[in-house]
Specification:
heterotrimer, A alpha+beta (about 350), B alpha/beta (about 375), C alpha+beta (about 70), A: about 350 residues, alpha+beta, 60s Ribosomal Protein L30, Chain: A, Phosphoribosyl-aminoimidazole Synthetase, Chain A, domain 2, 2 domains, four-stranded mixed β-sheet, 13 strands, about 30% helix, C: about 70 residues, SH3 type barrels, 5 strands, about 20% helix
Chain lengths: ~350, ~375, ~70
């Protein structure tokens, strides 16, 4: 006669909340991981149920990245903390010109977090991961007391492999190189801010959160070693990225404001808040510095890709001992584009 | 964006700039003070000065309410926010203004004070209604543009009988500031600051109209042109000022006709007059004591005065002795003249309010303009009498 | 403290409030300081309050002046 098995109650996803037992390492945690995370990410590695996952290493240089996601609000127009985590990590790998292979995901969940929300996040991550073709093969779960985490924080790592012969580097920009932007700026930051308390405004703007490795692959195929460096302008916006390049490559930039694509709604929202779109975060765009001989072909390839339809040349790299990013305004006068200091506070004045 | 993009048009800008170059007399200098911080910001952000001839120069004035807020008043707000049960509501611009000893509202918030950034006084009233157990204090600053919203908040609080709402009032007045500048020794006697005309504030003027400027135009024989907020508005106003100087006129003209009328917004003025009265004197950072340049609540509304409710006292606080904000606010010095500019004092580590407010001359210059060569030496030319 | 933007009234609401929009971004604001507002009017918005109506004819006149100022020989 076989031993009786306890009845395994299904997780009450609809009304249930995460509690400390879900982080304790016992059955409750196992159930949470299986019913929420494994169900959403489903692949052979996770089904094996190990603390680690193994894979064969390809020839070439491996690329690794890690990221943390603390976005608030957790759900925003066009995405959520989960899809953002997948896209952002993939993009970090892709910015090296590398092909992303695998992701890991660690969750730090606050006691009391609704299971329905957790499932929604997991589903979103699973979908983003499948769409991108980059599986989440290992992870971890921790639960902390109420008040010790803002709902949920996600930490990720990603690995990828560099194409042979490609060595992108932020110190590689040269005077005469071209600066190319893959599309409109400011969408993500504005979408997130539109849901923040005390800044309530209604808008149809969606976050541009997206995995860019497909776009990057087409660029690498055409531009090859003519691509000096790429970066996705996340926190700090385009301004921060250009200034980083300027200092790391010890050059200046000459940018044309008219050439920078901004959606009218994003421009309007920035007017409301007294923000400059140049400082607003993006999660589905890249800036590339290209050697003159590959610009035309690379730009053409970008525009043919759905995530690069609005791609444009926005300026040139110049000699400048001060490493300034100078911009000719739409008005005709000049100004510099600088890092924004501190936290971006909506300007009232 | 309608009523915005048309006034930023680069092609029209070229035309206006060419006309200014053509009409500005090469034998004289034209120094115009743009009073309003919003204009300072627009001029820098669009690089307007690049389009002007050498002999037409802009002097940045003190029309930035963040910049003229004395440290003592900021410290008062920080102290108030640290009282038990107080929720201090403030506009975002004030969060990073440095007080004495490196303090700021942002730092006080990080240390646990309940300080909330709001977009509108409507939000402060809502918070007071939603949280009746909190003492909600609104940190009120601003010129005449921003005072009517505070007046309405007081009226709403009175109507709703909100016992937990009060304001810390630092509202200031534009004409008094202009007067103070025109009467300062540097302008009146020493002539070390040459001001040939004023660009009048855009949105202050939608509220107060054109009337209050006529006194200055007549008494001090300086032309005033009220200008809209966009760079083309400012450019057109500069052209109008150049023409007035050339023709020997000193009148009040209105470039911002689409939003400013002779008498302004009389309803807004009435609301302000109902709730506020003049302070005999009020200290402005950089300008010292300014008579009848600031407002306080009328006796009927003193129940909403946080200074009284919390017995707040302004403790004397000094600016960093090397900080030149005062001189810069009066147009006597430029940001580059300050020893701290760009080294010790940057937007990340501001020493004075001119650097922390996006409209301050130092911040505007650092953020947008510091790539230009340092000021060329002022040429010896005939000044406009 | 002058940051104010021109927005279009899209809906009049009770208690001296209104919905306004700028290129598809909408916000609810107070209209207690202006009178006789109609849907379609443009106002100057500052810290959540409409401060003044924008006069479309004067706006056109300004633009015409700007354009002609650049043309005159």
């Amino acid at each position: 006669m076989s031993v009786q098995q306890p009845i395994r109650r299904k997780l009450d996803v609809k009304n249930g909340r995460v509690d400390l037992s879900h982080g304790a390492g016992g059955r409750a945690m196992g159930q949470l991981i299986e019913d929420i995370f494994h169900a959403a990410f489903d692949n052979d590695w996770l089904r094996a149920g190990n603390d680690q996952s193994a894979f064969d290493v390809e020839a070439g240089r491996m690329v690794m990245t890690t990221d943390g996601y603390v976005v608030s609000p957790i759900f925003f127009p066009g995405g959520d903390i989960g899809s953002l985590a997948v896209h952002g990590t993939i993009n970090d790998i892709a910015m090296a010109g590398a092909r992303p292979l695998y992701l890991s995901a660690s969750f730090f969940i606050e006691e009391g977090f609704p299971l329905a929300d957790l499932q929604r996040i997991a589903a979103s991550m699973g979908e983003a991961s499948r769409e991108a073709g980059v599986p989440i093969i290992t992870g971890d779960t921790k639960v902390v007391e109420r008040g010790k985490a803002d709902g949920v924080f996600i930490s990720t790592a990603g690995v990828g492999v560099e194409p042979p012969g490609l060595r992108l580097s932020s110190d590689a920009a040269r005077p005469g190189d071209f600066v190319v932007l893959s599309g409109t700026i400011g969408d993500h930051g504005v979408a997130v801010m539109s849901k923040r308390e005390n800044l309530e405004f209604e808008t149809q703007i969606l976050s541009d959160s997206a995995a860019l490795h497909g776009l990057v692959a087409t660029m690498v195929a055409v531009g090859g070693a003519g691509i000096r460096v790429m970066r996705d302008p996340t926190r700090g916006g385009l301004a921060a990225t250009l200034n980083e390049f300027a200092h790391q490559s010890r050059v200046g930039f000459a940018i044309e404001e008219e050439a920078i694509p901004v959606r009218p709604e994003v421009a309007a929202a920035c007017e409301f808040l007294g923000l400059d779109p140049l400082n607003v975060a993006n999660e589905g765009k890249l800036v590339a510095i290209l050697a003159p001989d590959v610009v035309e072909a690379t730009l053409k390839a970008m525009k043919a890709h759905p995530l690069g339809a609005d791609a444009a040349v926005i300026g040139r790299v110049v000699e400048d001992p001060n490493f300034f990013v100078e911009m000719r305004t739409s008005f005709g006068g000049g100004r510099i584009v600088d890092w924004l200091s501190g936290e971006q506070l909506p300007r009232i004045c | 964006m309608k009523y915005v993009d048309e006034y930023r048009d680069g092609r029209l800008a070229k035309g206006i700039a060419a006309t200014i170059v053509r009409e500005a007399d090469p034998q004289r200098l034209y120094h115009f003070m743009e009073f309003c911080g919003g204009h300072t910001h627009a001029i820098s952000r669009y690089g307007l000065e690049d389009l002007l001839p050498e002999n037409v120069r802009m002097i940045h004035g003190p029309g930035c309410p963040v910049c003229v807020l004395p440290i003592a008043r900021l410290e008062m707000a920080i102290e108030c926010a640290q009282r038990p049960n107080v929720t201090l509501c403030t506009y975002g611009d004030l969060m990073r203004v440095p007080g004495s000893h490196g303090s700021s509202l942002l730092k006080a918030k990080a240390a646990g004070a309940d300080i909330r950034m709001i977009y509108s006084t409507l939000d402060a009233i809502r918070i007071a209604e939603r949280e009746p157990n909190r003492e909600v204090v609104f940190f009120a600053i601003g010129f005449e543009t921003t005072t009517p919203p505070t007046a309405l908040a007081i009226r709403a609080a009175a109507k709703k009988k909100l016992a937990n709402f009060s304001i810390l009032c630092n509202h200031v007045l534009t004409p008094a500031a202009i007067q103070s500048i025109l009467q300062s020794p540097e302008v009146r006697e020493l002539g070390s600051v040459r001001i040939d005309g004023f660009i009048g504030p855009a949105h202050v003027s939608t509220v107060i109209g054109l009337q209050p400027y006529r006194f200055f135009a007549e008494e001090f024989q300086k032309p005033v042109v009220v200008a809209g907020f966009e760079p083309l508005d400012v450019a057109q106003a500069i052209l109008m000022l150049v023409r007035q100087i050339n023709e020997g006129r000193h009148e009040v003209e209105n470039q911002y006709v689409r939003a400013v009328t002779e008498f302004g917004n009389e309803k807004a003025q009435a609301e302000v007059a109902e709730v506020f009265e003049l302070r005999e004197s009020f200290e402005w950072r950089g300008l010292g004591q300014v008579p009848y340049g600031a407002l306080r609540l009328r006796p009927a509304y003193q129940g909403f005065d946080a200074e009284k409710r919390f017995a707040l006292v302004a403790k004397p606080a000094e600016d960093n002795p090397a900080c030149e904000c005062g001189a810069i606010l009066r147009g006597v010095k430029k940001p580059r003249d300050c020893k701290l500019f760009g080294t010790v004092c940057t937007p990340d580590t501001p020493m004075g309010s001119c650097m922390v407010s996006p409209e301050g001359a130092c911040s505007a210059h650092w953020t947008y303009g510091r790539f230009r060569e340092t000021t060329k030496a002022a040429p010896q030319r005939r000044s406009v009498a | 403290m002058c940051l104010a933007i021109p927005v279009q009234v899209s809906e009049i609401l009770p208690d001296d409030m209104a919905k306004v929009s700028l290129d598809g971004v909408t916000k609810t604001i107070s209209t207690a300081l202006v009178e006789d507002l109609k849907v379609g009017d443009y106002v100057v918005l500052h810290v959540g309050y409409a401060l003044a109506k924008i006069d479309p004819e004067e706006a056109e006149r300004t633009l015409a002046l700007l354009a002609s100022a650049g043309v005159a020989a």
